[in-house]
Amino acid sequence: MSNKRPKRKKLIFYLSLSGILSILIFCIEWIGSKESGSLALFADAGHIFADIFAHLISLFALLIASKKPSSKYPFGFHRFEVIAAFLNGLLLIGISIFILYESYERYYGNATVEADTMLVYSLIGFGINLISAGLLVGVSKTSLNLKSAYLHVLSDLLGTLAVIFGALLIRFTGVKQVDSILSILLGLFILKTSYGIVKESVQILIEADTSEFDKAHLLEHIQALAGIHSVPKITVRKLTSGVFSVEIQVATRENANRDQITFQIHQVLKEEFGVPFVSVEVLTYPMLQKLESLTVRESEREFGHHGHEHGHSHDHKPNKKHKHSH
Q: How far apart are CA 141 and CA 241, in angstroms?
């Protein structure tokens, strides 16, 4: 099992090109809204403008996340991508609320709209949006950050489609309220998808257990190793889409080769599962039982461990030469 991500340069290229197309769509629809008097086209242009901002956030996150891990930042900057996705999700929620409000206003409005002009500009915007969505649909499956950017483009696509339907209905029936109904449905769709992005981002940031990583398969690999007694704990943290850190505690038989077991677990996780950040604790079963008998001392979190006021002596007998004081 391996979670290989496309090269970052490729992701940056696709995202940048999609962002440029979004700027082009914004300019076209903004001009079209002026010429046609269409509030729907103007609102869609505003939607596109928010999408441009979202692209900038995602692009910045990709560039930051490419920095290597350091002693201060042992997991690198992968979480910046998740933070960007979280901000994009919040932005999508704001956009959906705006669309719902504008739909309500438009339903009771009496603005004059040139349907033919509105249709021409919305069709041009729709065509460019299709190209942008096509660029991101593949890479969106490999990154939560790019997934949020793709959903922005998809919501743009559906928004422009609603404008096209609205223009056609106004032209042939004169029933402009249908456009408002379509906009309401679009707003609810964006609200649903943006909630999913925000929820997934929060779960990653608070380090919730992830179902994406196949723990059962990993457990089969580890239990097959010579000298393994049990695997008490496997902790998987998702840093961003496709990037995990794994901490494993294994109990061995007393005559087991611990160095070999440690190497084999690292080898399995890195070569078979593609996990770059691995931490392994290897101990004998009797030691595991001793550790399980320990209790965690309760402390006041706001004061932490400053001053070493932890209520015990540092006179470690029987070797009194190592006695030290604070």
A: 9
For 89-108, write each residue's pLDDT tens digit: 888 888 888 878 877 877 77
Q: Of all helices (H) and strands (E), which one includes residue 230? A: strand 228-240
In tens, the pLDDT along 17-44 reads 888 998 999 999 999 988 887 777 887 8
CA distance linking residue 267 with residue 286, whole number of Å: 26
Return d(Cα 266, Cα 205) in angstroms, integer: 25
The β-bridge partners of 230 are 251
Cα of 24 vs its chain's centroid, Å:
27
Residue pLDDT, tens place only, 182-236: 778 777 877 887 888 888 888 888 877 777 788 888 888 888 888 888 898 888 8
User: Distances from the Cα of 104 to the Cαs of 12, 51, 101, 270, in angstroms?
Assistant: 38, 22, 5, 54
Beta-carbon contacts of 201 under 8 Å, excluding residues fewer than 6 positions away, are 82, 83, 85, 86, 89, 144
Q: Which of 181, 162, 164 is nearest to 106 (CA)?
A: 181
Q: What tokens does 313 get?
A: 């002596």
Residue 297's Cβ-count burial label (10 Å; 0-12, 13-18, 19+) is exposed
List of residues 6+ apart from 175 with CB closer than 8 A: 169
Within 8 A by CB and 6+ apart from 97, the residues are: 187, 191
Cβ contact 160:122 at 8 Å: yes
Which tokens go with 210? 């992830």
Contact (Cβ atoms closer than 8 angstroms) between residue 265 and residue 250: yes
**CA dihedral for 27, 131, 47, 147, sign (positive or negative):** negative
